[in-house]
Amino acid sequence: MFKTETFAFNGYTATVIIPENPNGKWIWKTEFLYAFDAAEQALLNDGYTRVYYSISNKYGSDRAVRLMRDFHQHLIKTYPLCEKATLFGFSRGGLYAFNYALFYPDCVEKVYLDAPVLDLKTWPPKGIVEHEQMLNEYGLNDEALKNWKGNPVDNLEEYFALNIPTLLIAGGADEVVPFAENSKKMIDYCNKNAIELTYIVKPNCKHHPHSLDDVAPILEFVKK
Length: 224
Prior knowledge:
Blueprint lengths: L1 E8 L2 E8 L6 E4 L8 H8 L3 E5 L8 H17 L6 E6 L2 H11 L4 E7 L14 H10 L3 H6 L8 H5 L5 E6 L11 H10 L5 E5 L13 H8 L1
Helix pairs in contact: 2-3
């Protein structure tokens, strides 16, 4: 059995799913709380608290990261949780997870990225509402975006210097968040620089499904 608490914090909805026997550790999924969540369900059964803060349409911006920090501080004061969270960043949620870890590494134990957006020049594409939302959130236009250096792929050196254990899972045929321009850039950077990165590439998988059919490698990463 578990208990779900939903409340407003700083004007945004928060969800905390508390296991029957909490162990103090927690998983913060930065987007799409219940999507492809077999690993989170297994961790919940093992005592991990699940957390979500609904600050969608901010694409991991500076404002989003500051909101996350305030929410984080509220959580560890309100619930018997460890000071550090394990972040699960799926798709656009990868922007939130990467940037939060980059700016507040003392708040993060581990990061699991799944088909993450790591370059806003590749997603969201022009012509969809998310593209305009993203530009407005970052105070950019299409011309400025071309030379903008605030993407996760632009900050890999700084991120990996923090030595935060990171798991990356992606589809090699991802057609929504192009693999070659996002996840592969992280993999190649780590291989080139002899940096430890746990990664699994599903060769023929597109953007969906996320996660793995057998979530054991995810559980091992989180628990070890």
